[in-house]
Each structure stands twice: as C-alpha cells, then as structure tokens.
Specification:
Layout (H helix, E strand, L loop, with lengths): L25 H25 L3 H18 L16 H29 L6 H18 L3 H27 L6
Helix pairs in contact: 1-2, 1-5, 2-3, 3-4, 4-5
C-alpha cells in the first residue's frame, strides 16, 4: 500500500482499501468485497420480509442494490498514481463505489421512515436517521473521516441485524 502512496495518517484513503486487491493478497480482498456485498443483500432481504410497509420495501430494496454495488467493488481498481489510461474494470470499480453512496444513504433515510411506522422498529428510526446524517459527510470527505464512515455503517448494520434477528425469533407465525 505504501508503494501506491497510502499512509495511515497523512493519506489514509489513498487507494485504500481497494488498493489491497492490487497486492499479493488481492484475491482475499476481492473475496471480501463479494462476501460483504452478498451479506448486505441477505440482510436487506431479511429487512424486506420484516417490514410491512411500502416504504420499508423500498428502503430494503435500495439496501439490497447497495449490496450488489458492493459486490461490484470486486472489479479490480486502478492505482490513483499511474501513467496508463483507466481500465474498464477500474471504471466499474469506481462506478460501484459511487453507486454504494447513491443507494446506501437514501436507503437509510427511507428505512428510518419505515421504522417509525412499525412498533417493533420505532426505536430504530431516530438511530437510523442520526447514522445517515453522520454517514453523508464522512462518505464524501477523504482521510480519517472515511474510517468513521466504515465504522458507523458497520455499527448500524450490526445493531440493526441483531434487532432483526431478535424480532424474527419472537414472531410466532415463523415457528413450526
């Protein structure tokens, strides 16, 4: 990563984490992108089945498409500093990153509204909107802020997935 211009303090998002796919462990980073996107899509399907409103269906569908966009990060990136033109796979990688932001953030805003309409999710409405408000600038900004974006999204996903799991456990119609 250092050879690409990355520095953990001075240039923390310079080709990170996508640049890891250019190194000796590239296959592992590519697998992580695919697994992350697939898990996000499965999470979205769980929310889709749990949320009863049209707004909930729209929000979880947007989240599912953000998962598919996350899988698109598996297209190998181009180094930022290069003397060659951009490759087709580098452009697809960059497009996937933009699509994540264009789908993930609206999905959270819509899901916040959907959570407000269902009693078992009501407490997650404000939490989701506050998370979205924090995520918007940290997705756009570079540097340390991008780490905050990743940590915030991971925390929201984990807390919400845990609540989804606990809610599904309590639903008697799902039991045999």
């Amino acid at each position: 990563m250092k050879s690409l211009g990355w520095d953990p303090l001075y240039a923390p998002t310079f080709d990170w984490p996508s640049g890891l796919a250019l190194g000796p462990y590239g296959a592992l980073m590519t697998a992580v992108f695919i697994i992350n996107g697939a898990l996000m899509s499965v999470f979205a399907m769980g929310l889709y089945s749990s949320l009863e409103t049209k707004v909930g269906k729209i929000g979880s569908t947007l989240l599912g498409f953000a998962g598919i966009a996350s899988m698109g990060l598996a297209f190998t990136t181009d180094p930022t500093l290069r003397s060659t033109p951009a490759t087709w796979h580098g452009r697809l990688h960059d497009l996937s990153f933009v699509l994540i932001g264009l789908l993930l953030i609206p999905s959270m805003i819509v899901l916040g509204s959907a959570f407000q309409k269902q009693i078992q999710w009501r407490g997650f409405s404000t939490y989701t909107w506050v998370t979205a408000a924090l995520v918007i600038p940290t997705f756009i900004l570079k540097g340390i802020a991008f780490y905050i974006f990743l940590l915030t999204m991971l925390a929201w996903s984990e807390v919400t997935a845990y609540h989804l799991w606990k809610t599904a456990e309590r639903r008697p119609q799902d039991r045999p």
